Amino acid sequence: MQTREINSLVLAYIGDTVYENYIRHYLVSKGIANVNDLQREAVHYVSAVAQAEAVKKMIASSFLTEEEIGIYTRIRNNKGHSHPKSCDVVTYKCATGLEGLIGYLDLEGQNDRIKEIMDYIVGEVLC
Fold it and tell me: What is the number of domains present in the chain?
């Protein structure tokens, strides 16, 4: 199966794990050794609000390629989203779109590009 044919929410499912794993490694590398502190810090990066803010900055600064924006938009606009009570549906869809893009890149083996995106995010998200 071609990666482009995989269900958008499946891509987001994969991307969520890649994204969160990167953030966990990043926080541990910063010297945070307490699990409660790690969890508290991780929320600054893995919340839907933080993810939506990060992807909007990447688009505004032309960091993402046209192809990546197309993948993100397709996933963001998927009709099958439900959303948590902690944020509005637009924010949640933006976050899902980012996770889906990460999932797509992961399945395509584009690990260097994932690292570039994640490095951008940890440099841009305000903690």
Answer: 1
- Span 49-65, pLDDT tens digits: 999 999 999 999 999 99
Which residue among the candidates 16, 106, 112, 119 is catalytic per the annotation?
Answer: 16
Examine the residue annotation and report whether 16 is marked as an active-site residue of this protein.
yes
Using DSSP's 3-state secondary structure scheme, residue 105 falls into helix
For the segment 64-74, the average pLDDT, to the nearest whole number, is 97
User: pTM here?
Assistant: 0.91
In the block, tokens 């945070």 appear at 32
Number of separate helices (H) and strands (E) present in the chain: 6, 0
The CA distance from 45 to 39, in Å, is 10
**Alpha carbon distance 78, 74 (integer Å):** 6
Q: Which domain holds residue 39?
A: 3-124
Query: Which residues contact residue 63 at a Cβ distance below 8 angstroms, ignoring those fewer than 6 apart?
Result: 57, 117, 120
18/37 Cα distance (integer angstroms)? 21
CATH number of residue 110's parent domain:
1.10.1520.10
